[in-house]
Amino acid sequence: MNVMRKNLTISGLWGALLLSGLWAGGCDCSEGDGASGEGDGMRTIAVIPKGTTHEFWKSIHAGAIKAGRELSVEILWQGPLREDDRSDQVRVVEDVISRGVDAIVLAPLDDAALVPPAREAVAEGIPVLIIDSDLDWDGRVSFVATDNMEGGRLAARRLGELLGGEGKVLMMRYQEGSASTMRREEGFLEAMRADFPNIELVSTNQYGGATTESAFATGEGLLVSHEDLDGIFTPNESTTFGMLRALRDADRAGTVKLVGFDSSASLARALSEGHVHGLVLQQPFRMGELGVRTAVAHLEGREVDARIDTGVTVVTVDNMDDPEIRDLLVPDLSEWLD
Question: What share of the chain in percent tops pLDDT 70?
Fold first, then answer.
């Protein structure tokens, strides 16, 4: 199969959903500093990420701000610091409900734990749109996200072709309850087993956790246990960078093929240095923008699609300098974020 021919998948729904709007100053409201828009006639959309530190969420924030400016709505950006703090994200949802926002755009940390507060919002007349990672709940307005199963399959095909269909591979998981990464892991295992039967999967049940440090610690242990390893897959930014650090400390970076998910400036450099051999990239800026645009369309009584695919791309050293790819790999967010 020609993997690179499938590398760039961009939903045609994007053009259809670019709703027209007037340019106005959006509110980049962090936790504790979110204007409600009361008294000025502007709607307020609360955008609640899984966390606020990773580059992925900064891109989603920037996309939300862009949509807010163009559609004359205020953006209340508020989320937990850590991506494993379910109780804090529940508290954030409850807080924005009490503020009386017009809609919530939520990237849930857990596909079950965030269902009760989402139901509470709808009961209070606040529609909820889900981005990035789905909920086990049918009350959402729409789900705007990557096709994570396909992203996992693309990662498996990239790694399998790098290894010529043979060798020993492990997958370090992210954390339980994260629907998006679980789907990537499922897609990776499905394609690896179907397309590369001669590759041995030596470990698929270890979790890197929500931070780079926890992923680094798990990665160190896995490398000690598997000295003859040929390839690794990691399903998000923190697990990819944590494993990269572990490989460098073990003097195995570049020798063991690493295919990861998402990007940062450090991972882009590692790709150019040959220490990372493929990154499956989402389009988080588009996800944030489409999330807000779709929420506004719903508030205006327009029909919206139940599922919107924002696209997925495999980036390698061979295509990383293409202008369109470069914008995904190292986006310039300065126009939208201070």
Answer: 88
